[in-house]
Amino acid sequence: MDQNSTSRRRLPLIARSELVVLQNAFGGSGCWVVKDPVALKYYRLEAEQYVVLIHLDGQRSLQDLKDLLVLRFPWLWLTIRDVQSLVSDLQEKGLLTTVRLGYGVSLLHKDWRDRKQKWKQTAMSLLSLKLPGVDPQRTLNMFYPAVRPLFHRLTLLVMAIFVSAAWLSVLVNFEAFRSRLPGFQQFFTGWNIVYLWLVIAFTKTLHELGHAFTNRHFGGESHELGVMVLIFSPTLYCDVTDSWMFPSKWRRIAVAAGGVAVELVLSSIAILVWWSTGPGLLNNLALNVIFVTMVGAIAANANPLMRFDGYYVLSDWLEIPNLASKADKLLRQALYHYCLGVELPPDPFMPRHGQGWFIAYAICSKIYKCLLVVMITLMLYRWLKPYNLEVLGVILGLSSAVIASGKLLWEMYKTLTTPRNEKVKKKNLAISSLAGIAILAIVVLLPVPWYVEAPLRVQPKGVQFVYVDTPGQIERTHVQPGGWVEAGDPVVDLSNSEIQLALNKLKTEQAIEQANLLTSRSRNDAALEGLALRRLQGILGRIREIEKQLERLHVTAPIAGEVLRAPRREASNRRRDDLELTSWTGVPTSAENTGAAMEAGTHLMSIAPEPSRFEAIVYLDQTSRNSVSEKMPVALRFETLPDQIVHTHITEISLRHLEHVPQEISNKYQGDLPTVTDERGRERVTSAVYQVQIAVPEELAAVRSGVRGRARILLPARTLGSWLYRLVSVQFRFRL
């Protein structure tokens, strides 16, 4: 049967009578919004699609429809295949029905395919899982009278002024705000992760309710409200597609921007609370709200490159329906044309003007999505790294890359294997392949500047730390912080009654054995004399060891210099046994700690030979230890000099890793390194770190002992490929 007879065959398809159709003005031309009241779905149709829909009466053929379209749109160059494509699209959307038997079976098959595709997309969306919802319209109608005053013009004006004032205050006092912000590891640690998780759920729930009530205010309906797991945090989503039925584009824009508006108000309130309160739960919650609303608004919701609120605002403002799908289709056509030399069948319904802008939008959108996945992966990697779980971040990033690459390769495979009259031009394919390989080689093999960052703490140059060697109780402190000592001067005297008792017991045993030795000699008993002599020698050896321990209870200065106080230790809430010695708190050498027990390894004080000269101690993670060496250039930024970068170099690198760090570096005390407090009150790092000494210029007057900061060690240029190999090999423990 020839194509001509097929095109004149009657189509047994009829437009569904219960559909609700409304015309909206888009870009000076008509755009029809179709509402399916049964499936509660909405579709935007171009004028050509609408003409086909209303003329499908079960009697017309494809040729009849083509004649109608040519008569209505004489500037279009249509083929029977184009008309067939329009009909198939309407049928796929579920807008058509038929009187033929067996159509219900095909609908069931379509429903099964749709469900399968939906679950497949859900499984491939690792960062955004959408679960089925319920119809919230009755609940929205119930609560709408309570929120209706929020849509009054005066209320909106007051909120706009409040939001503007809050963010203007941030801009005016930006440096003051930035100085109060915590570090990365301090923010993403401990209970704050739980607070952040709850804040995401709370803010995104209000965000979706902002859409829902704005839609209800203008007379729209919302028929689906469900749970979405967004970046591993549960939140709500709300379907407000009914706003497409609004004739006014400004009302559609208002509904699309309703969620972002709610987040702006929340962030403004949080800014006021955070700035007005001190450290505590309320202050932490306010900071979390600021972070979530700012990142959510800037990175996703308000960004038109993602198919969220900003995208629909842009689409309605430009009056371009289905902006993303048109841009993707035009980009695909351009890639086929230039890379494969294949001309896809022209689509007469695509925009005829400004196609370059559509292609640019599609490219920017895809690049931004890739960058967003990379940023989320790096954030998770940096957050999980101190807990030795960074492999989870790597797996997430690799999974996303594999899924995206797999989809791209599958599309290329289908393109190359699809039968067509026009074959792929080998010349175009070879040139595009070589260009792709060259770009990949440049990205992977081109050396780029590299660096590692780590926290630092300033201390006096050449400082020596004085520790307790033998545990005991403080009897006397000879010098206080700020005083000067010479090498060998006594600084602290300790006592240990258990060691003294052991010494007295041994001396008693010594006297007994000496008496036994004299008795055996008087009796000329050689065997008994030898036994007594051996016992006496053993006792004398133990006495010498205990006397050395007693000597170490008298702590002396290892070098000459100024005495600096040791870090403070807060009182423990642990209940103490009645027989347990009183432990020290505060500064170990203070007067109130006289008689307190000092464990071995307790930091008593520090002695600085040159108290006016300083050096920076950088705490470098073990994964970067082998990448640095002495004399490497370093850029320092101190908390006391936030706007100044100091350029210097590495002077020394420790060979052994640290197990404990000063409190100032711990994330529990506004620092960057995650630590846990051991039974002695010391801060123990969760992963091995190494000390790197950095020279500090003497002319920096604002740098003093204890000042914190960040160090950026500039490494030799490294290729991206070597960095990726090193990252993967470290995480998965393999070598080539």
TrEMBL record:
Is Cell membrane included in the keywords of this UniProt record? no
Report TM segments. Answer: 150-172, 184-203, 253-275, 281-300, 358-381, 387-410, 431-452
**Which N-terminal residues, if any, form the signal peptide?**
none
**Which one of the record's GO molecular function terms can you name?**
metalloendopeptidase activity
Keyword Transmembrane helix tagged: yes
* One GO process term, biological-process aspect: membrane protein intracellular domain proteolysis
Query: Might you report a single GO cellular component term?
Result: membrane
Q: Which SUPFAM superfamilies match?
A: HlyD-like secretion proteins
- Which UniProt keywords are present, listed alphabetically? Membrane, Transmembrane, Transmembrane helix
Which InterPro entries does this one have?
Answer: MBTPS2
Query: What's the name of the protein?
Result: Peptidase family M50
